[in-house]
Amino acid sequence: MKQTLTRRELLRLMMAGSGAAVLAACGAQSGQSTGQSPTAPAVVSQPGSTVKITYWGSFSGNLGEAEQAMVKAFNDSQDEVEVEYQFQGSYEETAQKFTAALQANTTPDVILLSDVWWFGFYLAGAITALDDLARQVNLDFSDYEPVLLNEGVRKGVHYWIPFARSTPLFYYNKDIWAEAGLPDRAPETWAEFAEWAPKLVKSDGSRAAFGHPNGASYIAWLFQGVVWQFGGQYSQPDFTMTMTDPNTLRAAQFYQDTVLKEKWAILSPNLNQDFIGGAIASMMASTGALAGIQATATFPVGVGFLPRETNFGCPTGGAGLAIVSRAPAEKQLAAMKYIAFATSSTNAGMWARSTGYMPVRISTKQTPEMVEFFNQNPNFKTAVDQLPKTRAQDAARVFVRNGDQIIGKGLERIIVNGETPSAVFAEVNNELTQAAQPILEDLKAVEG
């Protein structure tokens, strides 16, 4: 299924498969603050039997091993629920397969959805409200990091629980920093880094001071923080697009200048690999990559807060867990038991230590295991210390279908082709505005 699927196409596909159930779920979300799907049957098995549920995940490599270890730990810890883990590919591939599964009525029971995908499925009624289920398993939402939890709340109701949540960090190669005679820290401002950058570049072109990701690698996510740093934004909360705001354009001009004018940065198709391989001396990248980068790099890795310009700016990112509306009530409750386990104070710490993702529970940071881990891994402590300074991304990227790619392709035109930011972002602004219209219609229908 094509990645450019629109909101209306999604709804048409779902209604073609099992429209009555979808519309019923949509109606329930419109005016109720509690939330099991009215179409869910009461039971699927005899009382006392093991409830089997299917979990769709999106991680491979070391992250996939950690995700599967979490499932195994849950299954081993009790005999009431058995989770079957099924890997579906990237965040985008998982969302596409979920869309197809809704049409075919072959959906999982619990699913990992990224920050740019969960909202569309919420609008379509494909994921259920979680508050009643949370009460049944004694899950206390007050212990979750507010900046992460609140992103999954609509009209006071929880739909998306933080799990693999991240923020960008500034990564730097300590050996190259020392070779250049720079202080062992991240730059405090972009102006300071611009002074350092010429010392980090190799004249033969084999090393750049900094790397930007390309449009396929979430450049719009990392640029979100830079836009805020320059005093701009992608959009307002009411979906009014602000890509032509003077400060947004200043940020775009800065990105272009780092590559084409100052020539100390490059656009990288594989940012983490270029950093590990020494082709770039520094980068902004996800906290979720921290454990893997440190394990693979042959040099000491330094990290710091993102640089400031006019302001400090840093977005949240990553993925959370949702329960499928079509799942029977018994399976929904079983899925909530898994979510409560995977995001408990203890297991949130285990997941964070294994992956580099943020601990999503407040109490996790005070556990003896995490205190010791922070002492031994100051880089990860830096990521956690930055979290209170972060905020949820603008609607243009996370709520508008394909907003990430629309912005990212515009940035590539500016950085690679050297096109004028004002002209490119005027087109991007129009494209985002048009793409937002069906979202606004759906919001009105669902939330009033």
TrEMBL record:
Keyword Cytoplasm belongs to the record: no
Annotated Gene Ontology cellular component terms: membrane
Xref: SUPFAM superfamilies: Periplasmic binding protein-like II
CDD domains, A to Z: PBP2_UgpB (cd14748)
Gene Ontology MF term list: transmembrane transporter activity
Superkingdom of the organism of origin: Bacteria
Keywords assigned by UniProt, alphabetized: Signal
Signal peptide extent: 1-24
InterPro entries: Bact_solute-bd_prot1, SBP, TAT_signal
PROSITE patterns the UniProt entry points to: PROKAR_LIPOPROTEIN, TAT
Protein name per Swiss-Prot or TrEMBL: Extracellular solute-binding protein family 1
Source organism of this protein record: Chloroflexus aurantiacus (strain ATCC 29366 / DSM 635 / J-10-fl)
